[in-house]
Structure formats: C-alpha cells, structure tokens
Write a structure and sequence with these properties.
The complex is a heterotetramer of chains A (670), B (157), C (267) and D (335). Chain A has 670 residues and is an alpha/beta fold. Chain A contains 18 helices and 34 strands. With 157 residues, chain B is α/β, with parallel strands linked by helices. The chains are: A alpha/beta (670), B alpha/beta (157), C alpha/beta (267), D alpha+beta (335).
C-alpha cells in the first residue's frame, strides 16, 4: 500500500496569497494513499528540503508530491531530496500550483479547489510511479570523421588534440578538399593553400589520427557510443610502406590525357598520380579506370619498372577494415553545378564559359596557367570578363530555391583578382542582390566596386551566344528602368549553385541520418541542435548540411568536435530513464508485441529494433520490437500508436497517465 | 445543479511548448478561467486518443489538446504524427455523432502565454454554452438492469 | 468448381500444401469454412456467391499455422487482407498458395506474394454499393441523429467480440480490451463501454482495414460496425492518399505524415 | 393448472392491463437491423408479431449482460460506503418468449438457486413472470424436439399462450401466472383441455437425447472435435445468445475512491476465459474450448445438476459467424 507524502509550498506569498494552502494540505491528507501532508513557507529552501527528507524517513513514505512551482523549475531539486532520503528520485512528482494556479487565478475557493485537484492528480500519478535508474551506455572513445576537407580536418584535429583517437576517412587520394583548390580567400585575400597545408600536415603527423585516404565508408551499424563501421580501402596499387613519393612514376606514366579533377578539368594528369603537389599523403595512386595495365590487361607496366622502391603492386585488392567508434562526424562536403547545367548559357559547350572553381584554378599560382588569368579556348588574356552571380541559385525553375551563400563573396573576390592581375581589363558582375553579411564582408564588396571599379549590374542574364570570337552576354539592368544590356565578353564566369554531393543520399542512408529535399543532411533541430543529427552520436560539419563559407565551416566543425568530446568525457554515457520499452514476459507469452513493426516508422531516432525470439532449440518463435535505450529520446509517439499497448513509456506510462485522468476527474469528497 | 454551471476542462499538453507556455502565462501573471486542469505529456505524439474518451467518460465537459506548432516539435515530428491522429480521430467521433465541439485542438508555443490564457477562456466559454456533458455518461445504462441510474449517479456525486 | 477441386487435390497430392482452407456445404446447404488435409476430401469444395467468410483470419490460428504450407481459397477481399498482413510483417512462418476465381470465372492460382500483389491490384474492389448508401445516409444526418443512431445500435452490443474474431487485421495476441493494467476498455457491455470499444477498434483499423465487411455481416446484434472503418478509410484515402491492402510495401497513413497535412480545426 | 381462452382481439387489452398494473413488460421488438430483441415496451403496438426466435434469449431479464452488484465510495473517515439495489427491482413480465427459452429458465433456476442461492438472480427471478408463446413456425436451426421439448412445451412458463384461429389457448401453470390472469379475469373464458398439435410447428428431430446421453460418455477423446471446431473464430456469440449459458465475470469499475462492482457475461469460447496470470492456458486450442462448451451442455450439467443444458433453440447456430452447427457436431463426436 502506498504511503504518499504531500508537501504544499507557500512560495512566500506567491502561492499562499491566492490559494488556501493549509486547506489544501488538510484535505490532501484525507486522500486515499496519503500518509502525511504538510504546508511550509519555502519548500525549496534548505529547511524545506530537510523537512521533506525527515518526513520521508519518519513516516516511511513511498513517494512524495510537492505542491509548488513548475516541474521545469524545481523537479531536479526535489528529486535529489527524495534520493537523499533513500527513495528512488522518480517517486517524486511536482504539482504545479504556482504557474498553473496561484499566479493565474484570483484568491477564491475555486483556486484552492483547483490546487487540490492538481495535487490529487499527482498523488494518483505517484501511486503508479516505478523506480527508474539512469541508463548507462558504454562509450568507445574513438571518433570517425568522414571527409578530409577543411571541416573534417578541423574536427579531426580538435578531437585528437583533446586526447581522443580519430579515424579520418577521405574518398580521394588526398585530404584538403575544395579549400585546397582555392586561390585566395575572401575577405582577406590570403592564399588558401598557405593557411590550409599546415593543417593537412598536422593531420598526417598527429599521433591520435589514423588517416585513410582513397577510402570510403561501406556501412554503419550500432548506435551512439557503439558504432560498428566497415571502411573500404580502395586499392591504391602502390605500397605506401615502400613508396617515398619521389614522383618518378607519374613523370614517366604514358597515359597523360586524363582530365585533372584538381584543376577542374582544365589540365591533364597521368593514370598514376598525386592530385596536387602539396597532397597529403604525398604518394601516388593508380587510377585503374584510366591505366592501360588494367584497361588493356597487362600492357605497359612502366611505373613498376621505373619505381626505385618496387612499391608498385598491380595485384593489390580493395580491403574492408572494421572499426569500432563512439561518435561520427559527417563532413562530406559539397559539389557545385557546372556550366553544362545551363541551356541558356550554351550547355557548357563554349570553353570560355566556366564555373567558379575553374576560375579559382586559373587564378591560382599552382593552377594550369601558373596564376595568370588566360581563357581556356586560346590562352588569351581576356579583355572583358563577365561574372554571373546566382547561376542556378534562388531559381525555382532550376529546382534550387535556396541561396548558395558564398557566391556573392567569391564573385567579388574573382572580379578583384582579375582586376589586380589585369588593370586595364573590364570586369562586370550581374547580380540579383548582394548578400555580404559577415565580418568585413560588405567592406570587401565595396572595395571591389569602389577601389577596383568592378562594374556591378543588377539584373540577370537571359542568354549568352558567340559572335565573331566574342561572347555576347545578353542581360538586363533593372536599376536603369530594366534597360536590356549586351556585353561583349572574352570570358564568362558562372557563380554556379552549391549543391549536395552526388552520393549524399547513399551516405545518409548508410549513416541512418535524414536529409532534406536537396539532399543536404538534416540537423536535429534547426535552431537548438544545428550540429547534431537525429541519430544520436552523429554530428554534421560543413557544407554537407548547407552551403557555408570557410569560417562557418570551421566553426561548425569545432562545434561537432566539441559535441564529440563531451560525449567522450565519461567512459559511460548517462541518459534520463524516460524511455520507451516493449514488454517482455516469461514463456509462453514472451511479449504481447505482434511484430507488425508499424512503430519503427514513427520513431524519429531509429530507436526501435527487431528482435527474434527463439526457443531453446533455436527455432524462431516470433519477431518483436525492442527499443534501444541508447537512442530513444522518450517522446512516446510509438507508445500512443501501438495498438495493443505493448510499448510503454517509463515516467509517463499508460498506467500513470490514465490514473492522472481518473484521479483528476473523480472528486472523492467536497 | 449549481446556480451557474462551471465546466470541467482537462488539458492534454506537451511538456516543451504548451506546458511551458502555461508556465509563461503564470510568470507573467496573466489571469484566466480556473476551469482547466493540465495533464503533462512529453509530446503530443504521446497523447493516446483513448485518454480523451476516458476523460469524457469520467466527467470532463470539455478537453483541450495542445502542443508545439508544426516544425517546432522538440522531437521534430511528434506533433506531425499527432496531427494526423487528431484528424482521423476527430472525423471518427464526428461520424459517430460525438460532439467534437467539446474538444479544442491547438498549437501553443512556449512563448505564447497569452494565447494559452485566451485559449482556456474561449474554451471555457464555449463549453459553458454547450452545458454539462451528460450524453456520454448517460450511456451507462444497461437495458434490463432495471435500476434508476440517474439516482445512483446523484448519490455517487 | 471441378477445376478448383482438382487443383486443390493436386496441390495436396504433390505436397505443395499440407492444408487447404476453403468452403464446403453443411447439412442445410450453407457454404461454411472447411479445412481439407487430404486430396480425397477435395471434392467437397465449393466456391460461389455465398462463400462470404474472409478465410485469411484462420491463418492466425495455431492449429492452422502448424500446417505451414497452406492453400487458401479466397475472394479478392480475402487476398487483399493477406496482402495487408504481409505488409505488416505477419504470416512470416507460412508458405501460402492462393486459389481464386477471376471475373471471367476461371480458376487462378497465385503462388507468390508478388503474384498476389499483381492480382489484387488488377482486380481491386470498390466500396460495396449498399455500404456506400449507408455511409451517405449517415453523413447526411445531423450530428444528433448520428449520435442517436449509434447509441441505439451500440446498446445492442454484447461484447461477444465476434467483430474482432472475424477480422484478419485483429491479430494481436492480447487485445487492448484485455489489458487491465490499466484497464483501457470496460469489460462490461454497457453502452459507454461499447462505445469505447468500437471507437478504439475503429481507430486501430483506420488505414489498415481492407473493407471485407465481415465484422458488420456477422454481428449477432446486427450492428453495422464495418461502416466505421469503411468511413475512416475513405477519409484517409482522400486526406492522405494510399490504399489499404494494395501493396507489399504497405504504407500506413497513421505512422507517417506530411509536414503539409491540411486540417481546419487546430487553433 | 388452469385452462383459459382469450380472443385475439382482447389480447392487446390483456397486455395493456399488465402495463397499467405498473409492471415492466419485456417483449420481442423488431429493430431496423431486421433482428428481433427483447426490450421493455410501452404499448402492445411495439411488440413484434412475425418472428421465429429472438436473437438473444430472455435470460437477460434475470441475468443481465451487465449487472451492477453494488457501488462503493470512499468516505472522509477513510472507509468505504457500499450501496446495492436489490430492493429496487420492479415487477417484470416477459411477453412472447418461446417454450425453448422458458425451458431455459428451468436450467437457470437450478444453476443459480440449487446449491448456493444467488441473491441477485433470485431477486430478479421472484419478480419476473413468463408469458410464453407456442411456436407455429420454425427453421433449419430449431431442434427442441431433439432435447426432450417441443413447440408447445409448458416447461418453465408461468403462462403459455397458443394461437388457435381467432383465439389463444391459455395454459396457466403457476401462481405468478394466475395472478396475471386474475387481474384481467373479464377477458378470459374457461375451457377444457384442447389439442394444440395442429397449431404447432414441426421442427426436424436431429437426434434422440436418450442415445446421446450415453454415447457422449466416451466423446471426450473423439477425433471429430478438431473438425467440429476448426471453423470456430473463438468469439462469444454462441454463449451470449444461449438461454442457458451462465458463465460470468466479476469486475470492479472505477477508482480506489469510488466505482462499482459489476457482473458481466463471459464465454468459454474466448481464448482468455481459462488463461492464467502466468500466461499458461489449460485450454490451449479452440478444439478444447469448443469441446468444453458442448460437453458441458450435454454431459457435465447432467452429471452436476441432473439436467441437460441445451434447449434446442438454435440461436448458437444462427449467430455463429462460421455456421458451426451444434447438433451436427454432437452427432459427429458421438458417432
């Protein structure tokens, strides 16, 4: 039989001014199951809490109801007190007679009656409370970082520097990502590689970081603190333990006509190659799709002959390694639309209509033109360059409603770089709006316009066609009462939309994280959880979540690292026991769950798993749902939709909620 | 029957938005009708439609169900699931001739203390206008159990 | 008929199935469910207009499950319920073969879930006219009239649970009506308890019911309970789209949502 | 026993007399579902005329589907106040039940009053009078003649009315019966014994009770039970429609503070009926449950109470969703 204690707080005058607290306490004492009832000026004060602790001990109370403020305020306080007195903290409930009663009603019998009702309701709940214990989940203190761009690099370094193991997986042969392709960076115009490469080297040399380049995540199982990941190490055909990175192999490689990804296709590389001079690791791999040894079985083999270390090994196969990690940072980055996306601009047929990344390479000292801006078609230095902002972005017709965010800034940068290198050249920018919010961003744009007299035209370009060696850019100037303008350009640069990677969807599915309709990964909460995903233990960094510039990306990467480090701060992760459970009982019942698994769909956290129930002989008896307490956040949506109440929510159980309703509505006496 | 009828209204609310909204109404001392009694759930997704039936059966005259606005759910999608259930549940009750105007569904965020107060007042008034909800309780009559149930009901009040 | 009997005999003979669930005639020439285990008995099989029972419900029965390889003589409604059951991860322990007769009166044998799906989609039934008539009638009524209608109907319910027993979708081993910690549904057949029970049942079947109409047809008290789920299904189909018992993938309206779901009553 | 006659035209007057006397009159009423139920009625006009059998039996009057035994209420002293209603049960007449139904009351009496008299049943039964109507029609499901009864049987009735052209032949069997007649004596004329034979229905005789009584002794292990029960959906329709099924369940409805204790019908066909809290169920399969029902009717009740508890009304056959047929089953398992 329950022995409930009721403690009514005056909260100074806050409650007692409108509620007859003595009466509430007196009548509460008559409720069935209530063994002790008292009112006091400040329950949350030390003497107040002591009063509770003593009462629990003295009257052997099995549970308590504190009639005071909102549980959102002091539930923790009083649960601690209950625990101190030796009862399970979850046998303490709060009756909110302040925010929900004394503060919102005048002094009256109704108000007092309402307070009593609230207390009675919670008394009914306490009668049906059960002892709950914090859920402990062991944590493997190793992090997996997917993607070796600046986001991945930053996250990996932060976690590693906090003393935790990091496994960094990069798809391409080198880390560095898009940032390594950039020439200068806005708004300071400092050289991208100069600031990036030291970080890349730091990663390579960091004792806590295991780097897997030319590798991809194969599949992920498990849950927060306990992920089980298979990683595919693609066959490099080069034994890195022998290779010194001398480079003689790629210098001699005969197949030299392969478009160079690093230079955005504006130069060629060989079949055995390192993506760029400062690559990390600076060791080549063979691109088997383009190597004659593999395409024309066994022909060539020059690199093997040439290699002084005998590091070339055509027989190496893909290898799958299994790693156990506690947290995953997803930093898989982004892609951009290319000029072939735009029919109105000639489907990218014209070599001198290029995208932003290509211009970065043209402007980069390590680029195909050694930093001189020459147009791809004939290598001439362009007299007139037209830059198009919002190429594809903010364009419903193109299915891209969002703003790519970085274009305004890098277009200004491009125009500036061009002007700096060709003082007499003309630079035009067609734009919709200039979005230059950010520290010294707008100043940067103003500089482009005012100091480097870049010609900004507010309007869009309807088409571009070629006419005797010139690119005719037909647009409109909306500021000069929509006057059509045509500019004869030598080079056109499209600030094309930032989009999710081609394989974003499959990556999301491997990780069991959700993504939006543009395939950008979805954060757990747009405002309060911008770094977490709905899958506990998996965080997001950089442009895989949405278009971002470098500082934002780095900031989010560090945030993701911080979340990971917090998770790793204890050997176990402790979670509120307010989680759903699927009932289990002895044979022959085992569980009332029918295994329809309709509940799996409703769980936002993929916390509901399938369990096969077998007899001793191992015969499958039934399939039943099981809640992974490590993942469940306790919303209870599955509970309300389970037809035969096989799932219940600890702390808000069916028995508790129904008792509250019944308790509230039946008034034992007036 | 009392001189003026005071409806009993039960509110099923989620912890993160409407409960907090009601707290805000308190902290900002916004006055409203005393008729409502709040029952706190983690999320509107947790609210079992059977609880509404039970509340009416046990004497509620009106019910408020409220949670986070769409897209604001603490658990991202609980209120979306809840909304579908409400849509289906409401039309079922309508089809069975149940007076669904005694149920108020609403979104009240943690910032909408005022909206909460108004909601309670409006609901109280509309339910007061509808009068005591007896249809349902009077169903507790079994044809050959020839006992004056009204009488019993009186006694047990 | 003969064709059906021969096929059944053949399947039992060659061990494709160990048990055939079909119809035969009882003493008073009524088509009743029958359970055939040997080819010899196959000649008692009948399949005609009064073969109304939805035999798929027997697939939940222990004695039947034990046979593992089962043949099912089924009309489209029955096939549709099997499809829905498969989409709800039921019947996993069984190997099923379906025998039905198509519109042209030819025997059709379906031996895989995919074939089943194909056939059901090609022969998808529409709402029975008499039901539609009743639904329209009820929807045309005033709220009070509907209340009076159901109050009168449900007062006859004795909670024999025949509606639950004949429903292939009511496969829970322990129904909510039997939960007593807490007691969700009154055990007693008082009208309010009956109202609770039928609301609960309708909610649990909304978006899952395959409209075979059995619950209404067999109700000893003649309560048209099937109208509740029929109405719900129609509304759900309009509001959220999707058909019950349509595909193996399922697609349950009440465990999914669209951020843009439209309603007009949430303040 | 008294014998009377009353003309068809006066029967309504007799009926109204009962109402005027302040009795609750429960009679067959045709509902929109096309089914006939026993209902308290206010006028003779409401009474159904064309019916072979009501869907549910008249046992509901003395053994309600839900019966409030008492209510309880928590008082301020921390105790409970109880309240029951035995004293408030009105005089009731059941009008137009069939002889098989009336015969069912014989069994109910034995069951509820023989060993441990049941106060609730007794209170209702003592205030109830049965005015039975002989059957002039029957259907495929009727088999009263197989269980030692017939369409004109007076067993269990207080008054038996048999329609003969233009008049009713009235057999007054009991004190209760004659008190009804005496209140409206002017409507009746005395008569000598008449033969009802040609006015009665002729249901097919399916078996001889004598033979079944001994053959059923070894029926328990019959292999036929499986076939006889495979079709059973395990609902309670048969038991709830049956005039002699008396199984009930007692439930407390409400909260710790106040509520009521109710007695409601239960049925051995329901899988939960014998289920233990442990989950163990002594009657695992429907075969065992179906066997229990039939063996109880024809064997156990004879052994325990000395009376066959099947009256051949055929209700279980009519309501069964899968058309299980009790007499066909009985024949098959006693082969």
């Amino acid at each position: 039989m329950a022995r409930i204690g009721v403690f009514i707080c005056h909260c100074g005058e806050n409650i007692s001014a409108t509620v007859d607290v003595e009466k509430v306490a007196r009548l509460a004492s008559k409720l069935s199951g209530v063994a002790f009832s008292v009112d006091y000026k400040y329950m949350c004060s030390d003497p107040g809490q002591t009063l509770i602790v003593d009462a629990i001990r003295k009257h052997k109370l099995t549970g308590i109801v504190v009639g005071a403020c909102s549980p959102r305020m002091h539930e923790g306080t009083f649960r601690k007190a209950a625990e101190k007195a030796g009862i399970n903290p979850y046998f303490c409930e709060m009756a909110n007679i302040r925010e929900h009663c004394s503060w919102v009603h005048p002094k009256s019998d109704e108000t007092t009656q309402k307070a009593l009702d609230i207390v009675r309701t919670m008394v009914e709940k306490v009668k049906n409370d059960t002892a709950l214990f914090p859920i402990k989940v062991p944590v493997t203190k190793t992090a997996l970082v997917i993607g070796g761009g600046i986001a991945g690099i930053q996250a990996a370094l932060d976690i590693a520097n906090a003393g935790h193991q990091v496994i960094l997986v990069e798809k391409t042969p080198s880390i560095g990502g898009h940032m390594s392709q950039l020439s200068e960076t806005f708004p300071t115009l400092d050289c991208s590689q100069c600031i990036l490469t030291p970080r890349m080297v730091e990663v390579a040399q960091h004792p806590n970081i295991t780097l897997h380049t030319f590798a991809e995540v194969e599949n992920v199982t498990g849950f927060i603190g306990n992920f089980d990941v298979n990683i595919r190490l693609k066959a490099k055909s080069v034994d890195f333990s022998k290779c010194t990175g001398c480079g003689s192999c790629w210098q001699k490689c005969p197949s030299k006509k392969i478009p160079d990804e690093f230079n955005a296709g504006m130069s060629f590389r060989t079949a055995i190659y390192t993506p760029f001079p400062q690559a990390v690791p600076n060791k080549p791999v063979i691109d088997r799709a383009n190597c004659t040894w593999f395409t024309k079985d066994g022909k060539c083999g020059v690199c093997a002959k040439i290699c002084p270390m005998g590091a070339i090994d055509y027989t190496i196969q893909d290898e799958i390694i299994n790693v156990k990690v506690g947290a995953i940072v997803t930093a898989t980055g982004f892609d951009i639309k290319h000029s072939d996306f735009f029919p109105e601009y000639g489907y990218g047929k014209h070599p001198d209509i290029i995208d932003g990344l290509q211009f970065e390479r043209l402007a980069s000292a390590s680029g195909p033109t050694g930093g001189e801006i020459r147009r791809p078609s004939d290598g001439k230095v362009p007299e007139t360059v037209v830059f198009l902002a919002c190429a594809g972005s903010r364009d419903k017709a193109k299915g891209i409603e969002y703003c790519s965010k970085i274009c305004c800034m890098y277009t200004a940068k491009h125009a500036m770089l061009y002007k700096h290198k060709n003082h007499h050249g003309k630079a035009y920018v067609f734009y919709m709006d200039i979005r230059s919010a950010g520290k010294s961003y707008d100043e940067f744009v103003r500089r482009a316009i005012e100091e480097d007299d870049v010609n900004y035209i507010r309007g869009r370009v309807s088409k571009i066609y070629e006419k005797n060696g010139k690119l005719m850019v037909v647009g409109v100037d909306t500021l000069l009462n929509a006057k059509p303008v045509t500019i004869e350009a030598d080079l056109v640069v499209l600030a094309t939309a930032v989009v999710a990677n081609e394989d974003a969807e499959s990556v999301a599915q491997k990780l069991h994280i959700s993504y939006d309709k543009h395939k950008f990964f979805a954060e757990a909460h747009p405002k309060l959880k911008p770094v977490e995903t709905n899958t506990a233990g998996i965080t997001l960094a950089g442009a895989c979540q949405s278009a971002k510039d470098i500082p934002e990306t780095v900031a989010q990467a560090s945030a993701a690292a911080a979340k990971t480090i917090i998770l790793f701060s204890g050997s176990e992760l402790t979670r509120e026991p307010v989680v759903a459970t699927v009932n289990r009982s002895a044979a022959p019942v085992y569980t009332t769950c029918t295994g329809c698994f309709l509940c799996q769909e409703v769980c936002p956290y993929q916390a509901i798993e399938r369990e096969e129930i077998r007899d001793r002989a191992g015969n499958l008896l039934m399939n039943a749902a099981r809640v992974n307490a490590g993942l469940c956040q306790g919303c209870g949506t599955c509970v309300a939709m389970c037809r035969n109440k096989s799932i219940d929510l600890q702390g808000f159980s069916n028995q508790q909620m129904l008792s509250e309703v019944m308790g509230l509505l039946n008034e034992p006496f007036e | 029957m009392a001189e003026t009828f005071e409806p009993k209204i039960v509110a099923f609310v989620c912890n993160w938005c409407t409960y907090a909204g009601a707290d805000l109404a308190g902290t900002s001392r916004t006055k409203y009708a005393t008729n409502v009694r709040i029952i706190r759930f983690p999320c509107t997704g947790r609210i079992d439609f059977m609880l509404l039936i039970k509340a009416f059966q046990n004497g509620a005259d009106g019910i408020i169900v409220s949670g986070c606005h769409p897209n604001d759910c603490h658990y991202t999608s609980g209120n979306f699931h809840a909304r579908r259930r409400w849509m289906v549940f409401k039309s079922l009750l309508d089809f069975m001739g149940f007076p669904t105007d005694r149920i108020t569904f609403s979104w009240v965020s943690a910032a909408e203390g005022k909206k909460w107060a108004d909601l309670v007042n409006e609901t109280t008034e509309s339910v007061r206008a509808l009068g005591p909800f007896t249809d349902y309780k009077n169903l507790d009559f079994t044809q050959f159990n020839q006992i004056d149930h009204e009488g019993i009901a009186e006694q047990s009040r | 008929m003969k064709e059906l009997q021969n096929k059944a005999a053949e399947l039992l003979e060659n061990g494709t199935i160990n048990l055939l669930i079909g119809f035969c005639e009882d003493g008073s020439k009524r088509a009743v469910p029958c359970f055939i285990e040997t080819a010899a008995e196959a000649n008692t099989l009948v399949f005609n207009q009064d073969c109304k029972n939805n035999l798929s419900v027997y697939l939940h029965k222990k004695e039947v499950k034990d046979a593992v390889k089962i043949g099912l003589v089924a009309n489209v409604a029955t096939l549709r319920s099997v499809l829905q059951l498969l989409s709800e991860n039921q019947l996993w322990s069984l190997t099923l073969t379906y025998l039905t007769v198509n519109g042209a009166g030819e025997l059709v044998v379906l031996s895989s879930a995919e074939e089943l799906e194909g056939y059901v989609q090609a022969n998808f039934p529409t709402c029975r006219p008499e039901d539609q008539e009743m639904l329209d009638k009820l929807n045309a009524m005033s709220r009070e009239e509907r209340w009076a209608f159901w109050k009168d109907q449900l007062s006859e319910c004795v909670k024999c649970y025949a509606c639950r027993a004949v429903c292939p979708m009511c496969y829970c081993t322990v129904c909510t009506t039997e939960c007593n910690q807490p007691q969700w549904i009154k055990t007693s057949a008082e009208t309010s308890g009956n109202f609770e029970y039928h609301t609960m049942r309708a909610m649990h079947l909304a978006g899952r019911c395959i409209n075979c109409g059995e619950c209404g047809r067999i109700c000893p008290a003649g309560i048209p309970v099937h109208l509740l789920t029929a109405q719900m299904n129609q509304e759900i189909e309009q509001e959220f789209g999707g058909k019950t018992g349509w595909s193996l993938k399922g697609g349950y309206a009440l465990n999914s949502f669209k951020p843009g779901d439209k309603e007009n009553f949430i303040k | 026993m008294e014998l009377k006659l009353i003309s068809t035209t006066d029967i309504a007057a007799f009926f109204d007399g009962l109402l005027k006397a302040g009795k609750v009159v429960v009679a067959p009423v045709l509902k929109q579902s096309g089914k006939v139920f026993f209902k308290p009625v206010q006028s003779f006009a409401e009474v159904a005329t064309e019916y072979i059998q009501t869907t549910f039996s008249a046992k509901e009057v003395v053994f309600p589907k839900v019966e409030e035994l008492f209510t309880y209420k928590h008082n301020e002293e921390g105790g409970l106040d109880f309240n029951d209603y035995l004293d408030r049960i009105p005089e009731t007449v059941i009008w137009g039940l069939r002889p098989c139904d009336a015969a069912g009351f014989d069994y109910l009496n034995v069951f509820f009053l023989q060993e441990h008299p049941d106060a609730y049943f007794k209170a209702r039964y003592d205030k109830t009078t049965l005015v039975t109507m002989s059957c002039s029609t029957c259907d495929e499901s009727c088999f009263c003649t197989s269980v030692d009864s017939h369409p004109g049987d007076t067993k269990g009735s207080d008054v038996l009315l048999t329609a003969m052209d233009g008049k009713y032949y009235v057999e007054v069997m009991t004190e209760k019966g004659s008190s009804l007649i005496n209140n409206n004596l002017e409507l009746f004329t005395s008569t000598e014994t008449l033969s009802k034979e040609r006015f009665l229905a002729k249901p097919a005789t399916r078996f001889s009770m004598e033979e079944i009584k001994d053959r059923i002794q070894n029926a328990y292990d019959s292999v036929e039970w499986k076939q006889a029960s495979m079709g059973c959906y395990s609902c309670g329709a048969c038991a709830f429609a049956c005039p002699t099924c008396t199984c009930f369940d007692i439930q407390d409805e409400g909260t710790q503070d106040h509520g009521k204790r109710v007695r409601c019908w239960d049925a051995c066909a329901l899988s939960q009926f014998t289920k233990h809290a442990s989950g163990h169920n002594p009657r695992k399969t429907q075969t065992e449950r179906r066997r229990q029902r039939l063996m109880h009717k024809f064997k156990y009740s004879v052994e325990n109470l000395g009376i066959v508890s099947c009256v051949g009304c055929g209700r279980c056959i009519r309501v069964c969703p899968s058309h299980l047929n009790i007499f066909e089953n009985i024949l098959s398992v006693t082969k």
